[in-house]
Amino acid sequence: MMLPGRLLLAGLLRSASTSSSAHRMPKNMGWWDRFTWSSCYFHSRSDSTSSKARLTAKEQLDPFALIKDEVSEVTDRLRSMVVAEVPELTSAAGYFFRAGAEGKRTCPTVLLLMASAVSMEMTDGLENKPRARHMHVAEITEMIHISSLIHDDVLDDADTRCGMDSLNFTVGKKLAVLAGDFLLFRAFSAAVSLDNTEVVSLLATAVNNLVTGELMQMSITPAQCCSMDYYLQKTYYKTAALISNSCKAIAVLTGQTTEVQALAYQYGRHLGIAYQLIDDILDFTGTSASLGKASLSDIHQGIVIAPILFAMEEFPELREIVEQGFDDSSNVEMALKYLSKSQGIERTRLLAAEHAKLAAGAIDGLPESQDQVILNSRQALKDLTQKRFGTRALPFFFPPFFSAVKSSNLGETVHLYLQIA
Q1: What residue ranges carry the coiled-coil annotation (predicted)?
Q2: Nearest-angstrom CA–CA distance, 215 and 217
Q3: Which SS3 state, helix, strand or coil, does residue 399 take?
Q4: Which residue segment(s) compose the domain that 54 sits in?
């Protein structure tokens, strides 16, 4: 039986706003919905965009609409792939695949866009054998991703997931663990059918890396808890390993060169890290309704994340508080006071912007093409990280935001900004 745990806290973008004006963050958004919604405000557009790959604002397409039919096909197949002999297991394993709970299927969207972005010859229809294999990778990755979320909720004893009841809350921990294990079994059974040992190795590496990341978090020492290098390594393992290795797997199946494979990998790597940094910010500035989890959940679990690490650089006295841990609520209050006086949130945003820019740069580094489908797919991947907003649209550059950050109730900050906007 697979060891339950945060195997792959992988997230992968979800919804992209097509409006250039500020909107109120919708309630009950999933993690990747929050990332893409926030990315509209948290980082600037890359200046290295290839002129051949650049589309005008009118030509820009919703990344999810671009391949929605194929993603719908993937969703239908996922429902059939999780059927088990025992009806209770079928119901539990398909809990997040049922109608109304499937979301936008960001993992398949990103991977199918990547497949189109690195393909040199495009053909339509699911009868295209290479495209069918790419869809299988998308299905496998989604099953691994969902399995990791289920195991994660069991470990954290979470009651909710993406604005709905968690599986363990609904069916109990034992059946939830078995459902997560069953999804992993189905995922790797499907991976073997691809008959490509390198792809199977990449997916296995992702699982290994992210289990390692979970163990890094469980066994962290006080010194490691205060190390930004340690945090970033753990973040890659836990959040970016699945999508980076899956993006590379897509390039491998497409028969691309090692250079293109590396670019696909780097896109996923930097995208995943940027997401986690945005999630770190939202843990302090969001609310439970918008996050799908309790605000300040990381710090209450004793997890030190990027904004606190940056604040510690400005206020070394914060280190002693961090090393003591956050079991004492007074330590949480002190840490938040230091954070409010620091540039921790802004520096985290800037680091997320840099990783998002590197992700877009990886797409710009792909071989030139005249195929409009390829160009649209590449632009869609970049839109998932930048989506039209320049630096002037970033909320952290607005003085009212800094005024709100100075207040003790950081959980209300985002709402103050939205009211101002």
Answers
A1: none
A2: 5
A3: helix
A4: 31-41+50-213+220-420
